[in-house]
User: Which sequence fits this backbone?
């Protein structure tokens, strides 16, 4: 549409010419154009409204699919971001698996090469008779725990089986240093010493312990000690002591003065007679066929003979004018000796065998009782007997 005055091109709907200002005359066709334009604008407006409504509906539907946590945050995950996150998670998981595998391998290696694992392997090898392999494995284990008591014991056993007695002895001795109460270690050493005939080492080993349980182990390896049928103590009479030993193949040697029976002993054959008063120290040992001696047995006997009671004289002295008989009694097992001159009697004096007659004059009768077995003597009893015959009485008797 153009201006009728100046010919300027006019926009649809203009009433005045923007150049010359002439009022424009709107024809019916123009009105139609305006109505058409209005219809187009209205249609475009309705189309935009429909698009906006569709977008809102799509957003609402999409919001229903978004997780509750994402809706609360007001965020929406795009497919690209989700795929990227999955890849990251997958990478992390793979890394963790690799780390776990490496750590597991390290732990497995450490466990397989730990002392306990190596010890168990060595023990299995030992129990199946593979002693060389057992020793090699156990040596690796002992480098990790050199003071293991179980390791020392197993090493001793393995070395015994291999015939390496020096190494076995060293292992058992180390175990005793670690545990002085180890019966297994003492048993191992006793086996080695016995096989080697090292009797002196067995005796020396016994001196290293005071445990009753361990000392009992030595009974099968040491020469038996002789036994006496009479124990130490105080006695009042002579003794006869018999010695014995369970093994008939053993010889017994003894002394009664406390000296060493292994060097100075007399071979035992008959019961030992102890016939002196005072202390007697009896020592005895046994000797086996290999020339090994037992530990010494010792008994101490202290003999103090019982002193007999003094004899009883009847009558017990006095003055007499006629013949008088005297009787003497004493303890059983004793003999009475006497003198008339007041001297002390002994075994060389007159022996009392029956009634005595009082000799004429003033006499001192001395008596003593001596034990027939021990020789112990009683105290001396002295009594005074005065005997003078009455002659006048005798002459009267004659005249009558």
Assistant:
């Amino acid at each position: 549409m153009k201006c009728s005055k100046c010919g300027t091109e006019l926009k649809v709907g203009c009433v005045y010419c923007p150049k010359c200002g002439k009022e424009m005359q709107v024809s019916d066709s123009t009105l139609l154009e305006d109505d058409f334009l209005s219809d187009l604008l209205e249609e475009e407006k309705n189309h935009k409204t429909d698009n906006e409504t569709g977008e809102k509906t799509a957003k609402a539907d999409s919001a229903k699919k978004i997780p509750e946590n994402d809706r609360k945050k007001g965020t929406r995950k795009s497919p690209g971001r989700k795929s990227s996150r999955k890849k990251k998670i997958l990478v992390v998981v793979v890394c963790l698996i690799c780390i776990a595998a490496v750590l597991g391998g390290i732990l497995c290696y450490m466990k397989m090469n730990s002392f306990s694992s190596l010890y168990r392997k060595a023990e299995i090898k030992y129990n199946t008779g593979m002693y060389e392999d057992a020793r090699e494995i156990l040596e690796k284990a002992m480098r990790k725990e050199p003071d293991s008591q179980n390791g020392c014991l197993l090493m001793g056993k393995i070395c015994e089986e291999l015939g390496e007695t020096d190494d076995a002895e060293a292992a058992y001795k180390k175990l005793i240093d670690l545990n002085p109460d180890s019966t297994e270690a003492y048993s191992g050493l006793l086996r080695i010493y016995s096989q080697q005939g090292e009797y002196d080492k067995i005796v020396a080993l016994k001196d290293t312990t005071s445990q009753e349980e361990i000392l009992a182990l030595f009974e099968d390896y040491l020469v038996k000690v002789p036994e006496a049928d009479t124990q130490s103590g105080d006695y009042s009479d002579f003794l006869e002591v018999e010695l014995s030993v369970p093994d008939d193949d053993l010889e017994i040697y003894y002394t009664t003065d406390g000296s060493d029976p292994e060097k100075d002993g007399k071979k035992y054959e008959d019961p030992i007679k102890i016939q002196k008063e005072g202390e007697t120290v009896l020592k005895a040992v046994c000797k086996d066929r290999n020339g090994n001696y037992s530990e010494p047995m010792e008994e101490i006997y202290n003999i103090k003979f019982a002193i007999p009671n003094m004899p009883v004289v009847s009558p017990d002295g006095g003055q007499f004018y006629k013949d008088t008989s005297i009787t003497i009694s004493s303890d059983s097992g004793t003999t009475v000796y006497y003198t008339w001159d007041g001297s002390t009697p002994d075994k060389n004096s007159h022996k009392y065998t029956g009634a005595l007659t009082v000799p004429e004059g003033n006499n001192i009768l001395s008596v003593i009782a001596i034990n027939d077995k021990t020789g112990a003597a009683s105290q001396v009893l002295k009594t005074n007997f005065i005997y003078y015959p009455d002659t006048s009485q005798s002459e009267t008797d004659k005249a009558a």
